[in-house]
């Protein structure tokens, strides 16, 4: 079953690279008493994710935060080393959270996992964005095609805020 507007996010623990090494962050730490934009990509360093989806959120970070959002996070089914390297190479380190859903358990718990084995990627997350308030989904935008980032892109999210 896919998560829906009004649902509480399932409990999960992510890993994120910091200057001091990896840290574990729970959904409670990330979303409790906060208004957070969360977006997911099928994979760090993949073309649509790196050239379109992530840059839109980095370029519009200040505009999103100005709309009363406390934080922005991106999640992918990659390990924390890959997510950390993506954060550094994209210039996003310290600007948004780069969350590693290393085993896909968060994507599966949301019902937003997708098998991209035919393309050599294995089980990943669907591309989506959501506004989460105090752990509850307020908006949810799921892309129909993993090769596009329009419905879940930063411009669409800004309009919803």
Keywords:
five-stranded mixed beta sheet; alpha/beta; PRX5-like; 161 residues; two-stranded antiparallel ribbon; antioxidant; 9 strands; oxidoreductase; single chain; Thioredoxin_domain; globular
Give a written overview of the molecule:
InterPro entries: PRX5-like, Redoxin, Thioredoxin-like_sf, Thioredoxin_domain. Belongs to the peroxiredoxin family. Prx5 subfamily. Thiol-specific peroxidase that catalyzes the reduction of hydrogen peroxide and organic hydroperoxides to water and alcohols, respectively. Plays a role in cell protection against oxidative stress by detoxifying peroxides. This is Glutathione-dependent peroxiredoxin. It catalyses: a hydroperoxide + 2 glutathione = an alcohol + glutathione disulfide + H2O. The chain is an alpha/beta fold and 161 residues long. It contains 6 helices and 9 strands. The chain has helices at residues 27-31, 47-59, 61-65, 80-90, 105-110, 154-160; strands spanning 13-18, 21-26, 35-40, 71-76, 97-100, 113-115, 123-125, 128-133, 136-142. It has a 5-stranded mixed sheet. Strands 1-2 form a two-stranded antiparallel ribbon. The chain has a two-stranded antiparallel sheet with strand order 6-7. A hairpin with a 2-residue loop joins strand 1 and strand 2 (21-26). The longest helix has 13 residues, at 47-59. The radius of gyration is 14 Å and the shape is globular. The mean pLDDT is 92.
